[in-house]
Amino acid sequence: MWQCSICAHENDTSNLSCELCGVLRDLSLYFNNISETEAGAKRRNKYSGVSVLARSLFAPSSTKSKAIIFSDGSQDNRNATGNKQATMDALHKTYMPSKKRHINIVPFKFDTPSPDDMVTTGLKSSRNFRKAVQIKDSVDATGKKMMDSGILQTEKDTSMDPCTSAEVDKLGGTSSSVPSSNQQVTPILDHELQHLSLESKPKSSKPKIKKPASISEYKPEPWMLQSEDQEIRRQLNLAIVGHVDSGKSTLCGRLLHALGLISKKQMHKYEKEAKEKGKGSFAYAWAMDDSTDERERGITMTVAVKYFDTEKYHVVLLDSPGHKDFVPNMISGATQADAAILVVDASVGSFEAGMGVNGIGQTKEHSQLIRSFGVENLIVAVNKMDMVEHSKDRFNFVKLQLGIFLRSCGFKDSSITWVPLSAMANENLVTAASDSRLLSWYNGNCLLKSIDSLPPPHRDVSRPLRLPICDIIASITLGQVAVCGKVEAGGIRTGSKVLVMPSGDLATVKTIERDSSSCNLARAGDNIAVGLQGLDPGHLVSGGVICHPDFPVHVASRLELKILVLEITTPILVGLQFELHIHHARVSASLVKILSLLDQKTGKASKKMPRLLTARQAAVVDVKLDKEVCVEEFSALKALGRAFLRSGGNTVAVGIVTRILDEAKV
Ligand code: GTP
Ligand code: MG
């Protein structure tokens, strides 16, 4: 027998993880200084691989934007983007009214109780924590323009807005020689988030919040709890992520084409135009990459949203950018995901680049991020198999290498589906493999069947309304005061009163749009656009939250976070500044104190007040925000209680909000 270090449950010696809370028995491997391959070999035997904290932060406990970029049309000059964005930003700042800008943000979705959850809440089962998912999009889930839904304009994505990188270079995280979009956002965010500051609130905005009621008093209304069985097809938000050029957009385009959703005529047009531009191989990707910049540069910059149906699901495809500079955009789409397809390029050298020869590749970063958003089910599309002669050995090599890493992120083997395919050759996408080389060793599901086999997402409707504002939009059908985002908790109905935070204004819901058509109500998991009446549009900010009038969200200026440091090369020091993302809010923050280092095995405090944090350490930290942010403790609402820290263009740590230390009085 062995005793679980977290819940003290006595487990049989044959169990490699605690049967009660899932904590691994031997956690040391992951953090030893051994190569991944060596560690992997051992892990395969022991099913080890991840720390308690990694699991508690990434793993189970029971879930865009429009960039304006000048392009020089050359992929080789991608690194110049920062400067050009800076120019654009200067123009933008000068000529655009502040309310016309938005920021994209980033909910984390740690959806099942972590071992730490169980310790702190005394829960005995992870099954009580289920994820709030299901998204219905009338609105482009990432804020992209949707002319056909009547939305005329979403706000510009300030995630692409630049700032000097000097500020972020001071941070303790990994630094990049490439000025990424993420390095460049801080000033604009500060500006945007002035709205979040109660001090900067216009005088006319009088707080109208009643004394907040206790959450235990909340009783959902019957319409919110309407049976999900009434839905014919459940909606599944599927993020397509992976390293740059792995073939994500081509895969999406091919899939849509094979399903008859792109007409022959349209496809012919893409092919012709792509050829004319000397980018013939990108014809299918053009179905997703619709901006001139994206097409000229041959890379995705914003998240593209398309739809298709499988037998079981109405799938919302969220095609993410793979390039490092656009990770913030990837995040804003991927945070909406119920499940993800991680596309990896099987060809020699490219897979290795995604795994990060020098530093972390986006295959790794995207995997970590989507897991930290609460995505548990993953399809790994091993693409470009045509480039490796459909080799079983290469496929197995990719599976072995990446599998080790995915396990370390907290993905369970049983929740990962591996599909060898070739997007370009339409091999194994919507029908079974036909190439004899592939057929000789693969008889599993094609991609479409694998998508259909994903477990259905669960909707969480029993809490008070929380609708984090992703974008502020203007639309003919919705009116001038409208927002879009995903309902994270509760429900919303036309005619009902809602509280707009952090301004504290009360507004009436005039219209709701979902899936490009108006509707009377929406529930947790739905992606909607809401037209509001009775408030000043200037009081709406991206990163704000629409709430139930009696149950306002917290507005915090100082937080206690439990974080897990990712692969960084420069230590994180007390006093350093970074960019904090919480749902759709993004704000500059500073590390006031590292309260304690956490023991990897037990999750308990091992050292008080260390001065710095290095890669893969877990800690409890005290963080001061430059502006107030709408937030919930993770234990209260996971979607609004996940945070991640970015610095120097990289995600340096992910975490959860354990305590609100300073709260603004609204
Ligand atoms: P970003 O969005 O910029 O990260 O790129 P992406 O992952 O969307 O890649 P994209 O679809 O733009 O494709 C990149 C290149 O890979 C294009 O030249 C495609 O033609 C090529 N490609 C995609 N899939 C395949 C495939 O199955 N086989 C081969 N040989 N090439 C492919
Ligand atoms: Mg793409």
Automatic annotation (TrEMBL):
A GO CC annotation given for this chain: cytoplasm
Location in the cell: Cytoplasm
Keywords for the protein's UniProt record, in alphabetical order: Cytoplasm, GTP-binding, Metal-binding, Nucleotide-binding, Zinc, Zinc-finger
Region Disordered, residue ranges: 146-183, 197-221
Residue ranges annotated for the Tr-type G domain, each copy included: 233-465
Xref: Pfam families: GTP-eEF1A_C, GTP_EFTU
Superkingdom per UniProt: Eukaryota
Function: This protein promotes the GTP-dependent binding of aminoacyl-tRNA to the A-site of ribosomes during protein biosynthesis.
Family from the record: Belongs to the TRAFAC class translation factor GTPase superfamily. Classic translation factor GTPase family. EF-Tu/EF-1A subfamily.
Protein name: Tr-type G domain-containing protein
Lineage: Eukaryota, Viridiplantae, Streptophyta, Embryophyta, Tracheophyta
